Each structure stands twice: as C-alpha cells, then as structure tokens.
Amino acid sequence: MVLIGAGLIGTSIGQALTAAGVQVEVRDANPSHARVAVGRGAGTQTPVDPAEVALVVVAVPPRAIAAVVDEALDVYRNAVVTDVGSVKEPQLRELIDHRSLSRYVGSHPMAGSHLAGPLAASADLFSERTWVITPHEDSAPEAIATVEALARLCDARLITMAPADHDRAVGRVSHLPHLVSVLMAGQLAQMSPDDLALAGQGVRDVTRIAGGDPGLWEQIVSANARVLVPELQALADRLSELTQRLERTEPDVRPLLAQANAGVRKLPGKHGASAVDYASIVIEIPDAPGSLARLFGDVDAAGVNVEDVAIEHDPMRLVGHLRIYVHPDREQALTRAMTDAGWRVSTAAPPL
Amino acid sequence: MVLIGAGLIGTSIGQALTAAGVQVEVRDANPSHARVAVGRGAGTQTPVDPAEVALVVVAVPPRAIAAVVDEALDVYRNAVVTDVGSVKEPQLRELIDHRSLSRYVGSHPMAGSHLAGPLAASADLFSERTWVITPHEDSAPEAIATVEALARLCDARLITMAPADHDRAVGRVSHLPHLVSVLMAGQLAQMSPDDLALAGQGVRDVTRIAGGDPGLWEQIVSANARVLVPELQALADRLSELTQRLERTEPDVRPLLAQANAGVRKLPGKHGASAVDYASIVIEIPDAPGSLARLFGDVDAAGVNVEDVAIEHDPMRLVGHLRIYVHPDREQALTRAMTDAGWRVSTAAPPL
C-alpha cells in the first residue's frame, strides 16, 4: 500500500501495517517527515509500480485531503483510496461532482494525541479505538471491504456510518464541545490574575480541550461548519434563555440545570455500559516519588477494585489529592483500610 | 461557638473546631441533621447562654443566609457572626440597609463535595484549601480577627477580598464555567444515542460539573446574577462572532482559537506555580485488581516522579489507559523502563 502523509496518524498506520506484514511505501511532501517515519518502522521509501498498488491511505491535513485523494485516484488506477480526516461530507461533495468515486471510501480513526508528527506515532495508536468507515452510494463493496480490513489490521473497532451522519455526530459530541471550551477559555484570557487565583478544578476541566492546536482545529471546524453553525445557533438560543431567566427579579434557572443533569447522564458510561454512580474517596498524597506506588499497594491489599482515579491538584497547597472511584458497596471497606494504613482519607472535593 | 446549619460545610467546621478544643453548640432546623452532626463529633446540642457566645457560624443554604444572620445578630448580642455562602455582596446589601453590621464578617470556605449533608462531613475538608474572608467597611477589626482565627483553626489558607471583588472573581472563574458546562450538557440532552456513541473524553470533561446539584447551583447563580448576566452577555457576543466567522465562505476562526489557547495558559498551574508543559506517556492497564499497584511499583522502580495522572476510559473497549505526566526530560527513561517491565506503552490520546 501507499501512505501519503507521514504525520502522527499516517506514521502510526504505516507502523501497524508494516508490523502486520504489509509492504508500505511512505510519501510525504516534507522529505524529513518521510525519513523519520521510515526510521520508525512505518515502511520504506522505495517507489512501487502505481498499477500494482491495492490501497492508498491519504493522511494529510484536512484542508489538503480532497486534492490529494483526487490525484491518488488518477495515479493509482487500480487502488482503493481512503483518507483519515475528521470531517467526511464536504470533501466527498467536492470530488463526486467531477469523477467516479467507486474506489474511494472515507474513514475516520478516532485516535490522536496532543503531540503531532511522526515522532509521536505508535503502532497501537488505534488499538481497540473507534474507527468510523463512511462509505457513500458509489463505493464499491470490494473497496469498502478493503478499508474495513485496514481498520482491522490496526486493531480498531469498526463503526459504519453515512458521511453526513458521521459529520453530524462528531460535530455535536466533539467539535461543538471544543468550541464551547474555546468560548470559555477566551473569556479567561480577559481576566485579571486576582480573579484567576480563585480558579478550581471545574474551570480547568471545562477549558482543557481549548488548549488544543489552533491550526488543526481551525481546519476541522471550518470543514464541518455546515453542521456546527445550526448547533451554535441552538446554543445561542439556550444562552439567551438562560440570561433572561437569570435577569428576572426572581431568577428561575432550575429547568436548564435539571436538563443539563439529564444530558450528563445520557453520555455512555465506562466501557460502553450505562453510567454507574461510583462512590469515591479522597486520599492525600505527598508530592514525592513512591507515594502512588505505596498508595495503590495499600488499595490492592484492601482487595477493592479501582473503577477510576483522578488526581486533584490545589494550586494553593503543596500536596495533591487522589480521588479513587469504587463501587458504592466497597467505599466503607476502602476508607477503613486506607485510614488503618495511615493515609489521610477525606471527602474533600474540588472547590465549587 | 454556635453552629447554625449542620450540612456538609457546617458539620465539617464543627468537627474541626471540636477537634481543636472549641465548645460547639450545633443547631439545625432539621433535628435529625443536628443529631447526626453531633454523633459525628461536630459538637453538642446542649444550649449555651446566648450572651456568652463569641462566634456564630451560619452554614445554611444560600437563600436563607441573610435572614439567619440577621436573627443571629439579635439573639447572640456579643457574638461575631459569619456565614459560609458562595456569594457575599447581595446578602450584605440586604442586611446593611436596616442595621449595624460591625459584628458581621462574611467568609467563603472554597471546599465542597459532590455529596451533601452531615454524613459526608470531614474535619479536614478545609485543610489547606482557600478560605476567602470578605470584610466590609463596618466590620470591626476584632470581628475580622475572630473569623480569621476560625479559618486558621480549620487549617485553611486565608485570602482577604472585598465582598464585591470576591463575587466578581468566583462569578468569572467558577459560576460562569458552571453555566457554560450546563449549556453544553443541555444540548447533549437533545442528542440521539447514535450521536452520543461517538462521545470521547473531551465532551466528558466539558460537561462534568454540569452534573452538580441543581438545587444548590440555582441558589448560587441566582444570588450572583448581577455579576453573571454581563459575563453571559460577553459570552453571547463571543459566540455570535464565532458563528459569523464560521459562516463565511472562507471561515476564519483562528483568532478565537488562539485567544482560547492564551486563556488556558493563564490559569495558575499546579501548586500555584506557572503552568509547566509536562510530557506524558500512556500505559494500558487491565481492568483488574492490583494492576495499578503493580504499575506504580514499576514507575517507582524507574525513579521517575509522577507529576499528574489520569485514567482515560474508552467506552468502546474493555481496558483503560493511564496517562502519566512527568517532566519532559524523564519521559524517555520512563517509557523505556515501563516497556522493559512488560507494559504496553503508547502515545495514544483520547479521540479529538
């Protein structure tokens, strides 16, 4: 196969396929990226006969995808061509106007990193992650099967969706939350250090993803503008209702807070099961090597299964708190065991 | 001292003061709450002579604070009275119109829990947490000193702010992010299971705090409406600008994304220092007792200090990934050591 684009995603695909015994030719407009990818086991730079290529994976930045797919369909006349972009419908419409697309099937491996480039790549980046395949009406069944085989070789979990359905879903549950986080973080940029000194865990959680790469996100949200604009308009209506309710002499925001509770509960829980209300205990951990190992050793000795864990840092103090989530019926046993083992156990939570 | 209101905050204060040798009378409109608080070491229900009381702490729900403070100033004629509400200015204005307030000093211990009530209380709930003292112009210096002593007995870190400055700061960095999270979670409530199946870590982070108690948050944001309404209007302007930029034939959202990056960087980092860009590695953990203890034992053996840690669950797979943050110059050593110890180490991140 031929890999065009040796960034994080492309190099990781090259590594996974090479590990699976597939011959991979690595191409990148940036020769040093291609060399690094080859050095990290993503394939070779030896050109293959274009007529012999069965699969081309286009892993270039979102804005370049349509043109590169178009060219690849011309150059590799017998190959199935796929891409790995986060938005599928616009590039499809761009292409389908002027050519047959039976050999093209879009796909979207839902994995990534806050790091970019071939150095951050890993053959198991997609392992058991969701990989959405987005066939269109003209996709040949053999072409779809080829892209499915690609995702399986990368050890991913397949979901098949129409391109427009995919774009609507990721627009709503990924791109829209990103923009909401961006709006809040933009307000932070205007605030004084005195205001920011009272920041707790809540605002950190809400704005974490707004720290993502502006260059990449600009391309993603621009490509999915058709889905995002109506979602943002619905958000503006909701914001307007909230503001009006808060402006009343007797504010009445309860319905919106209750609806938000319902929305949080609708998110699929851990491992795809419905959400479980875990109990949690909070343990103070000294900021020193070995504390976490000792702590989890004592948790293990208590025979309690840890469902989730989070370190809560307080910007005002020199220790962290580790919150350990367990099934509610194990909370008391764990609290007792950890207290007996000498840990400071509390119900302290991040500031409201 | 007299404690009025035996919920999570009040009972925790009673426990901390009782542990410090202070005699505490616990009062609550709900007799079973008072009994539970006393049973958990928050003080006694034995009435003391009101004229002898030096300090009254009002720890009732936000909506009831002003009336209870007012009554306490009448009943306990020689006592300093404080409260623990999240919003300070409105109740002060309500009181200052019709009485002398030299014996009243507002305060806001910034600690809490997703649990409520005396059963969730803990004597160390405030330990090294921020406790904002909000004296007003008429507060007597001795009254301020008494409330400062209260916060110190609870092992909290004091910050002194004017009531209006406090309300503006928590409005911006705590209440506003809460409402932003509520707006996003409200949109989730409208989405189909097919859309929600593609939800990753990002939307979970953005909407986590929207799962908070609607009854409590309604009172908090209503009390701080004066601060929040202009902040929400600024957010609406920002949202409108974002939508307009996204509607253009050539969308141009880069400036807003870059400003959001700057906002995230302005948040004080771990332990109040400026934020450090930690490196992180991701390790696959089997969902079984003992995995975390073994894992941190191996991290410890590598001699690398863990700066932060987060478990990333993928709803589609049966394992979790632990992301370990370390200083950038220790990343390679830890990756090598953990790989050698047999762990699956990758650069995998949550879906974009």
Automatic annotation (TrEMBL), chains A, B:
GO molecular function, one term: prephenate dehydrogenase (NADP+) activity
Keyword Oxidoreductase: yes
Keywords in alphabetical order: Oxidoreductase
Database matches in InterPro entries: 6-PGluconate_DH-like_C_sf (IPR008927), NAD(P)-bd_dom_sf (IPR036291), PDH_C (IPR046825), PDH_N (IPR046826), Preph/Arog_dehydrog (IPR050812), Prephen_DH (IPR003099)
Domain of life: Bacteria
Name assigned to this protein: Prephenate dehydrogenase
Gene Ontology process terms (BP): tyrosine biosynthetic process
Pfam families: PDH_C (PF20463), PDH_N (PF02153)
Gene3D superfamilies: 6-phosphogluconate dehydrogenase C-terminal like domain, NAD(P)-binding Rossmann-like Domain
Record domain Prephenate/arogenate dehydrogenase: where: 1-276
Family: Belongs to the prephenate/arogenate dehydrogenase family.
